[in-house]
Amino acid sequence: MATEIYRDAWGIPHLRAGSAAELAHAQGLVTARDRAWQLEVERHRAQGTSASFLGESALAWDRFARRARLDDTARRCFADLERREPETARWVRAYVDGVNAGLADGTAPAFARTGLTPGRWEPWTPLGVWLATHILFAGFPAKLWREQVAAHLDADAIGLFATDGPGTSGSNGWLVSGERTVTGQAVIAGDPHRWIEDPGVYQQIHLSCPEFDVVGLAVPGVPGIAHFGHTGTVAWAITNAMADYQDLYRERLRRTGAGVEALGPDGVWRRAARHTETVEVAGEDPVEVEVIETGRGPVIIGGPEGLDGDPADPADPSGVPVAISLRYPPRVTGDLGFGALLPLLRARRVADVDRAFDRWAEPVNVVQAADTEGGVLHRVAGRVPRRAETNSLRVVPAWEPGHAWRGWHVSPRAGLIDGVAVMANQRGPSGPLGVEFAPPHRADRIAALLAGRERWSAAGMPAIHTDTHLASASPLLDHLDALDGLTPEAAALRDRLLGWDRRMDAGSADAALYAAVRGAVVRRLAAHPAFAGLTTPPAYPDVFQPWLALVPRVGFALEHLLRAGELYGIDRPAAVRAAIEEVALRPPAGLWGDTHRLAPWRALEPEQPYDEPGLSGDHDCVLCTSGVPGLTDRATRGPAARYVWDLARREDSRWVVPLGASGVPGSPHHRDQLPLWLAGDLVPVVTDWTRLEKETDV
């Protein structure tokens, strides 16, 4: 049969073909036509060549991508895939062929603005895109932050800042089994929290051939439907497990006449791989990058002469120049888990999904699945190495024994409680595999809302998606409640906040007042001399700065800092008093949504800026729209999609993305879902081909 491309009323592609390979070709083709600019940005980011057209602002990422060997790792993983999974490798090649055919028609305005011509994808490019998208998901730079905290405060202080912070990505997800639904069949719902990007990081798509018929959210540049899918008889969804599966090693390197050597744990200096690469930078001179790889992994910070710009490692009192290497599973195993993708599409029951996720590698996720026969699944999927506990906490010395990897953890599993399972990056089934997890507020709130009704339907789920109750406000409000002797203006503000319903609604003036007081407290705590040593991070590359900046760290850990028994001599009641007096003198004039606005990341800012809509929600709300307390209310993270999978009738499922199905500015489907996303509404999932409009045959 001919491969057919259809669209629904929202421009979402529905593809029908005679085989899985033909369907992969069509998926690549339509993705390139809809999102040519996005695909090319992602290809260049995976290769470490994005500065060649984006300029100096992209150089920090390109340096990291080169030094971390992302493109080389993708090549290795694809070569391994061809050996182990030849059918999957051919399927990936078919997708890449489709992308190349679609890129030939790429006409996004950004190409003309930058002078970029769409290039050619290689068979391993989708693996590079996947790796570049997820390499920072496990938050290994947090280990650099912990080193700073331990050096300038003490090791006990690490726990004060342990929370889902500015550089991580999370999600909500919940599974309601058939015993708790009006249909007797399960419902799965949730929303992945990621950087909100334009175009979006998820692509709504429908893939149909004689082997399978699946709707779901694809990652542009990667074939199939990995994270969120519904085959009609089984559905699945994931959240970030917050597992720790990447290690940082402090390396001692030395130059020799033959190159570079690294000191190993057996006390022997061994030759490290070394070469130099050149990064082209638009409008600037090219930059040379030295790429070094030891027996632990690629060196991502510093070199034989020490840390970049600073030869002394603050965590090493010996004063010996030190570099830092990264060890991550795909670099070690040559496997990115792409062997799971075709089995997921072919899944018919929970057992099929379970077996597919046995082949999952990165990132490590918590998976929920349900099928029409009553089967349910709640498990962790991905590869986490067994090693010393210190590896998970800190940067460990490569020259000392005891830090090698010793096989892999068995993926934990969990059951349902009262017919429900909730995952929201809390310390749940993946607890033994991680260090820092999200506070329990989102998970507890979702569980409480689900417990409030005996029977649920798919139609009731958006009310959970959009809940704005902020449980993490309690510590600050408790401090306010204990204050006396305030000025009349501050006392009135305190009493108003104590009567606030704790909902971070865009139209709430009280939410705006609370956020203003919170921000003032964060800034005062961060400015205290006790934290002075944390205000200036070491000379680490810019790509790691979100994990090292003090104000965001204080902002996201405020709950812990206010509740700690003692905080290095900081007078917290005095800080809270000064903050509320400050806000009482200059209160915000408007509503929470006036400053809490959507600020999507774009590789290239549009020539005609868009209005930034006001948002409800906050970091610890179920409606998780994250600014950075103490720094900005503008939200760069939030629900990158919402979904409701109904196992009774797939046609009763719903979904939405923040902007639209098209990545082309000016397209009628570039931003047409934004009003629905803002309102908490969802788009119907359409699978009836008679209700679709045929676009073309290919």
TrEMBL record:
Native organism taxonomy: Bacteria, Bacillati, Actinomycetota, Actinomycetes, Kitasatosporales
Organism name: Streptomyces hawaiiensis
GO terms for biological process, alphabetical: antibiotic biosynthetic process
Catalytic residues in the record: 171
UniProt remark on cofactor binding: Binds 1 Ca(2+) ion per dimer.
Superkingdom as given in the UniProt entry: Bacteria
Protein name per Swiss-Prot or TrEMBL: Penicillin amidase
Cofactor(s) essential for the protein: Ca(2+)
Positions of Ca(2+) binding: 244, 247
InterPro entries named in the record: Ntn_hydrolases_N, Pen/GL7ACA/AHL_acylase, Penicillin_amidase_A-knob, Penicillin_amidase_dom1, Penicillin_amidase_N_B-knob, S45
